[in-house]
Specification:
With 203 residues, the protein is mainly α. Helix 3 crosses helix 4.
Amino acid sequence: MSSATGTGAAGARYRPARVGWLVGSCVVLSAGVALLLGSRLGSDGYSTMLNGIYLASGLPFVVVSLAVSTVFIGVGWARGLRPDLGTLVQPLVVGAALGAMLPFVPRPEPAGLRWLEFAVGFAVICAGVAGYLSAELGIGPTEAPSIAFDPPVPFRWSYMAVQAAGCLLGFALGADVGLGTLLVVFGIGPVVDRIRGWLPRWA
């Protein structure tokens, strides 16, 4: 009896609409990252950290990304956030979608168009992060420490702190940091937190 109940609960948790929401949100997130990269005005703090470690260590980028992801997910797990479907889906979908989108992303030269692309990318990436978090099917490495420490620290501030720490570490290790990076670092937490409140709850 308990086995059947567990199977039914799992089926309800992983119903197609919810999984589709997760995957779709990850694609939206990928589009936001692609637009930020296309604007060439800076990216998020986590990406800056990965780039800095890559430059300083000489290790292949995929190794750096895997190692840092494992550490961040481990921090979340230690705080009670067990890996779930989204923990696997998020990096796989984002990586694949981003690779497919980057060749087609505009790379304008005029400053006004670059800032417009950056602004659109920032809004899109915030919507994507909020969307996949709202699915509540597990979290990716970037958000794991932030969610793990909420409470006691509200997500908007814990996420900002993680992004800022990543930005500082990346910069110290040789990664480029632009004005756009700082805008993302200090703006993404509060904006994602606000958007999450507007989205459906699946749990």
